């Protein structure tokens, strides 16, 4: 049986690289052999000589370019593939900063990355710059000699040079460090993070969200079409909004506010009304838990003025009602709840992101229950909490944070109508949450339960036992674990 790999396959290329390395061949020799044997373009041959995938090469190019002042290249796998194919069809010309980043990453000369076809297709201005000695790595790579050292062109040469310069500039304008497929993937990744956050531990999700935000920031430091820049700013707005939401749930309200300000900037630069509205919703949430109730109302109203699509108008009205009820303003709180119902009845469009950036009916009823409690309507609160749990049970994804808060509202409503046993029963699912799911809003709301109201209707021992269970719950929570984790502030 023939176990030899298929010629040109990854296994065949890997075997060639390993055999040549074992024989003492340099990477340059392996690249030459790759070009000859597999008819590769020079840049592709150098990548395979190193054994890198397209994404690994993209990461290394980006890192290498960061060491050259003013020449940051934000690469991705799609771009690397297009740079390798140039000047063939469906390709993209690598700019001088890209070629320099490649040469640094591959540890070769720029000339090694270009063949005759490349040189014929490069603008004359680029070729003239490449013929000059390369400047130091920490200086700007594309620097023309001082005017005193240049011979000014005349006649037809002047006309041709002006045309070359305009063509070079046009190619730079046309070039982009991000493609439509990459942008589509970014949004898919954001939707996955926003959805996963409803059911997963927050800290691993925070790490993933931060990494994706850094990728978007790096791309924004590069060059792309204006519409692509707007899409990247939109992605950055959602990601910073997610980090703000998570930071708040982990008890870091000041850091959440910082993320919110950056999210607001990105949302404004994107010009996208939906991300602007969701960022304002996030900032309203952070302000509410930080005790800045007037700010929470202001952010919610500003978000409503965005006239956005999807369920964010419902969410913003609920948040405004939440803040008014905390201030004791019953009429304003109930009016805001009524606007949430109206917004639900007149929804237009769908949520672009979903997950945490969506307000399902169960989430709306969770807010209604909390508001009714604060304005002294325990029976209405109990009805809203039971309706919220019924709605949540019918959803394919059950958000543990929302479900926990509904149970707390139900327990508080039972206490409000003198049903202590019902309160203890409602809290059982909350107290069973694993430590990683015990977020700051849940621990805060547990701490606010009027347990003293249970004493006339149950044994003092039962109330004391419940209080102790709540204290243990809060001590073994996600914010508490994060605060006690080693290396805080070292990242």
Task: Give an overview in words.
The structure is a single chain. With 491 residues, the chain is mainly α. Among the domains are: 10-135, no CATH class; 360-483, Serine Threonine Protein Phosphatase 5, Tetratricopeptide repeat (Alpha Horseshoe). It is 67% helix and 0% strand. It is built from 24 helices and no strands. It has helices at 10-22, 27-38, 42-50, 54-65, 77-85, 96-106, 116-121, 124-131, 155-174, 180-196, 202-220, 226-249, 253-270, 273-289, 293-304, 312-327, 330-345, 361-374, 378-393, 400-416, 420-431, 440-447, 460-475, 478-484. The longest helix has 24 residues, at 226-249.
How do the helices and strands line up, and which of them pair or pack?
Elements: H1 10-22, H2 27-38, H3 42-50, H4 54-65, H5 77-85, H6 96-106, H7 116-121, H8 124-131, H9 155-174, H10 180-196, H11 202-220, H12 226-249, H13 253-270, H14 273-289, H15 293-304, H16 312-327, H17 330-345, H18 361-374, H19 378-393, H20 400-416, H21 420-431, H22 440-447, H23 460-475, H24 478-484
Helix pairs in contact: 1-2, 2-3, 4-5, 4-6, 10-11, 10-12, 11-12, 12-13, 12-14, 13-14, 14-15, 14-16, 15-16, 16-17, 16-18, 17-18, 18-19, 18-20, 19-20, 20-21, 20-22
């Amino acid at each position: 049986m023939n176990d030899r790999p298929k010629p040109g396959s990854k296994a065949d290329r890997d075997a060639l690289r390993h055999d040549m390395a074992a024989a003492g061949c340099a990477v340059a020799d392996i690249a030459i052999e790759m070009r000859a044997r597999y008819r590769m373009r020079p840049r592709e041959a150098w990548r395979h000589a190193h054994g890198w995938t397209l994404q690994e090469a993209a990461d290394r190019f980006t890192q290498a370019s960061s060491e050259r002042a003013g020449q940051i290249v934000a690469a991705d796998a799609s771009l690397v593939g297009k740079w390798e194919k140039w000047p063939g069809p469906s390709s993209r010309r690598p700019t001088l900063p890209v070629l320099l980043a490649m040469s640094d990453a591959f540890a070769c000369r720029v000339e090694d990355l270009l063949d005759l076809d490349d040189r014929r297709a490069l603008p004359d201005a680029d070729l003239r710059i490449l013929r000059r000695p390369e400047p130091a790595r920490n200086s700007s790579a594309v620097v023309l000699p001082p005017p005193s050292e240049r011979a000014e062109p005349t006649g037809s040469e002047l006309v041709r040079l002006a045309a070359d310069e305009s063509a070079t500039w046009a190619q730079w304008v046309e070039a982009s460090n991000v493609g439509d497929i990459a942008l589509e993937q970014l949004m898919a990744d954001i939707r996955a993070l926003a959805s996963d956050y409803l059911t997963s531990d927050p800290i691993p999700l925070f790490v993933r969200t931060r990494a994706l935000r850094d990728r978007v920031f790096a791309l924004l430091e590069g060059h792309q079409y204006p519409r692509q820049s707007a899409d990247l700013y939109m992605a950055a707005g959602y990601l910073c909004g997610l980090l703000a939401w998570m930071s708040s749930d982990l008890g870091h309200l000041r850091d959440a506010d910082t993320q919110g300000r950056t999210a607001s900037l990105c949302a404004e630069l994107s010009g996208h009304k939906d991300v602007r509205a969701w960022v304002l919703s996030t900032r309203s949430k952070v302000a509410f838990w930080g005790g800045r109730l007037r700010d929470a109302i202001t952010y919610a109203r500003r978000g409503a003025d965005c006239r956005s699509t999807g369920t964010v108008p419902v969410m913003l009205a609920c948040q405004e009602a939440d803040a008014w009820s905390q201030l004791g303003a019953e009429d304003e709180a109930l009016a805001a709840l009524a606007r949430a119902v109206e917004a639900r009845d007149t929804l237009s469009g769908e949520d672009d992101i979903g997950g945490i950036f969506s307000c399902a009916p169960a989430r709306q009823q969770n807010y209604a229950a909390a508001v009714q409690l604060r304005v002294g309507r325990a029976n209405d609160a109990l009805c809203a909490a039971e309706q919220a749990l019924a709605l949540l049970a019918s959803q394919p994804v059950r958000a543990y944070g929302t479900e926990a808060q509904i149970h707390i509202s139900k327990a508080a409503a039972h206490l409000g109508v003198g049903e202590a046993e019902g309160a203890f029963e409602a809290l059982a699912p909350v107290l069973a949450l694993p430590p990683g799911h015990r977020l700051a809003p849940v621990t805060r709301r547990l701490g606010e339960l009027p347990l003293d109201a249970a004493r006339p209707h149950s044994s003092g021992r039962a109330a004391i036992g419940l209080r102790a269970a709540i204290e243990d719950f809060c001590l073994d929570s996600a914010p508490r674990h994060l605060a006690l984790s080693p290396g805080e502030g070292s990242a």
